[in-house]
Every structure is written in C-alpha cells, then in structure tokens.
Amino acid sequence: MNRQGRPTQPIEALAIAPDTFTGNRALRIEEALIFEIGRPEVTGVDLDEPAAFTARLGGLERRDIGLPGLSEPEAVRHYVRLSRMNYGIDSGVFPLGSCTMKHNPRLNEKMARLPGFGDVHPLQPQSTVPGALALMAELSRWLCELTGMPAVALSPKAGAHGELCGMMAIKAALAARGEKRSVVLVPESAHGTNPATAALLGYRVESIPARPDGTVDPAEVKKHLSNDVAAIMLTNPNTCGLFERDVVAIADAVHAAGAYFYADGANFNAIVGKVRPGDLGVDAMHINLHKTFSTPHGGGGPGAGPVTLSAALSDFAPLPYVVTDADSVRLVEHAQDGDGKPFGRMCAFHGQAGMFVRAMSYMLAHGSDGMRQASEDAVLNANYVKAGLRDLMSLPFGDGPCMHEVLFDDRWLEGTGVSTLDFAKAMIDEGYHPMTMYFPLVVHGAMLIEPTESESKASLDLFVAALRALTMAAKRGDIARFSGAPYYAPRRRLDETRAARAPVLRWSKPAGQEAAE
Ligand SMILES: *Cc1c(COP(=O)(O)O)cnc(C)c1O
Q: How far apart are CA 266 and CA 429, in angstroms?
C-alpha cells in the first residue's frame, strides 16, 4: 500500500523477487564507467577526414589520447542514467542546513536564456550590451536597497569568493589609513570559509566562544578587541539558526576599536525584507545569490557572491563595476576611468552574469512583499519542523524559536548505538537527502535542518513523520536499520573520508585486463 492506501506492490511479488541477469532493477539501472563501456575507435560524430596538413607542433602533438567514444544514443543514456542516481532539489526535500536548497522557479531559467542575456559575450563592446549592463545596475540597486548599504561588488563567484573580496576591501581600507592590523575575530560557530578567508589573507584568526545560548556575547568580543584587530567576521542569523541579538552592540564595539564588521550573509534568506544589515552596522557582506535568490547550485557551482559595502569601504570595491550616469549605465573596467580606489579585481570579466539574471527574475517575480514573505515562511517552516521533532530529538540551545534552520544535537541518540552518521544514512533509504551533519562544530553530533520556504505543509508533515519513525526505531534498538544504511541507494555506505583524502581521479584498466585483451 502506498501512503494513500492504494495497493502498490503485491506481497507475493516480494517473496519471489529474482536476481536479475543485468544487475538492473527495473528503472534503477547499473551504469558502468564511461571508460568501461566506451572504445577509443568509436565516435558519436561524423567528421570529414582532415585534408593533408603538416603539424607545426614540433612532434609534440598528442596522438592516441585514449578517450572512450560512444554513439550518440549511448552517450545520452549514460549521462541520463547517472543523473537519475543523483538527488536534487527537483527530486525531493533537500533539508541541508546552511546551504539553503530552495526551489528554483523555472521562470528564472527562461529569463536567463533570453538571447539578449544568454548569448552575449564578455568581450563584446559595451555599446552592444546595454541591456546586460542595465540588469547589473538594477540588480545592484535591489541588493543595496535590501541590505541598506550604498555599494555592491558583483563579480565574486561564490560566497567564499565574496568573503575574500570583502576582506580584501577591508585590508585596502586599513592600508589607506596607513594601518596594518594582523588579527581577525571569528566566532566558533562560523562556517569554515570564514577562518579560511582570513588566513588566506595572512590574518591570525582568534576564535570567539559562544554563550550557552549559542550566540556571541559582546563582552567576549570586547575582550578580544585591540588596535591590532582588523575585523570581525560574524554570521547573522548564525549557523545555529539563531539571530545574534547583540549584533548592534558588537558592531559598535568593533567600530570603536577602529576595526570593520564583515557579515557572512549566507543566511540572508531568513531576514530579507525584515532587517537591513547596513542598519546593524555591517561594513561588508556577501550575498549568496544561489542560496537566497534561488539559482541552482550544488556540487561546487556555479554560484554568485556579490558583496555589499558600507560607505567606509565602497571606494575600494574591485573592478569592474557599473556606474549609473544620468541616462546610461557604463562599466568601469580600469581604475583610471572611475572615481574609486579599487583594490584590484576578483576574476576575469564581470562574474556569473547568468546568475544575475536568475536572481533579478526571482526578485521581480516576488516583489518586496513576496521576498519578505519568503523569509517569514522559511522561518515558520523551520519552527514547524522543530515543533514536530522536539519531543523526540534534543535541542542544544533550549526550546526558544529558531530562524530559518533548526539545530539538533546527538544527546537523544546516547545509548542507542546509532550515530548521527547512521541516522543520516537511514534518511537516504526514506528518500531524503540528509540534513547537514556534524556542523556547526560547537554542537556535538549536530543535525542542522533547513526546510526553506518552498516546502508545502504536506511535504513537511511527511518529512517530520519519516524522521519521527526513524527516531523511534533508533530508540527501540532497531540498530540494523541504521548500521547498514543506506540499503536502497545505488551505492551503499562509502568511505567518504578516503574518497576526500585520497581521491582516485584517473581511470586505469584493472590489473590483468591488459593481458587478456
Ligand atoms: C554556504 C556558506 C558559505 C560559503 O558560500 P559558497 O557559495 O559555498 O562559497 C559561507 N558561509 C556560510 C554560513 C554558508 O552557509
């Protein structure tokens, strides 16, 4: 029976379920590596033999590079089958905390494919792309309006890249003041990219401990402030899903010490339309367009991490940037063409232009009221999940309301023989991508759930019911359900540490096969 009481699978069929000859299970098809099914002599395209020519590469041209070839239908099937083993926001609830996996409206895709946006080339003369420039100016205007900050650098290509950009602007501003400070303060609940960014720029990172309620204490920040502190990097709402209530006091103390306030804006989706970070004293903040303003992401890209800047930093924004004159928009590509003191540039060209179109489309479709509602619904949904699970799972920071994500710890698993990892793996068998595990590090065995605003009540109810069923299975000692999970995924439990530490990136024929051929 399925959940609506409709019969789906006769019991008899289960008893006789055969091993299949192919190893496939109906639509779940085993797929070999392309190197195992392809042949160098096969090709899916039909090109003319090149006319006789003399290579001018001094004998250095590559000959047999051994790339496997497939016919066109074989190539299509290979990648379609692989894609079906994947899990994405379009296949089900994707409750990763901090990463914000929300629905990406198809309208955005349609807009990004308009030829005037999709087919332009970054080396085209400015006079031929006024629409693309106008869109960058309009997006900048919206981002400044939403953050209450006067300037924005659009070019960074991800959140982490935006952090680097904002911190480079801070470094440039300090240098312009003739100062060279060496310390950056980072709360211990921060995303790993924060200390990494500071360290990459040569700063020494000092960690600020959290209060028992999971937030940062301004008194603790003050203890660490000195005239050697360049900046604090603070996430708000923080990665425990809590709003930093003392953020203004923290900003004031940081400014009084002559330092800057970098805000990690990855969680901006919880407060868009409710709070303007500029009003909280923020000097620089990256916005993950791919999290807050709905563009597809995952697997490392593509993202876009524009950085909004306060008046104190706006002069130092990197090249290129758009300037809106009386009747036109122009792109300043060289320092001498503008009024600013750019610290340099973050990348070739202007950043991820396709993401700008998608974000703009999302903003225009929602309007200011719609964006505010998305923030409110994201917070409501996280609190709904919290209310549905708090009697079974343990909350590290008490029972108060959370923002857009709810954080559980692993105290409730104590003595069950089930770990956070086991629990997450069992969620895969239930058809869910696991939540964020073991992050933030301030909480033991953390499980961070962010449902986002895009889930319906029905979908949240099923998600909560599935998690309740799993928690009860763990508590009654049904260990096998967890220890071997996932049972139903195309691949079982993998050695993820080894895969990350010692990745095998080159295919070679298994030993012995060479001789057999
Ligand atoms: C996602 C995230 C980042 C990094 O953003 P990327 O776009 O993945 O580089 C930084 N901080 C926090 C809190 C995040 O959630």
A: 30
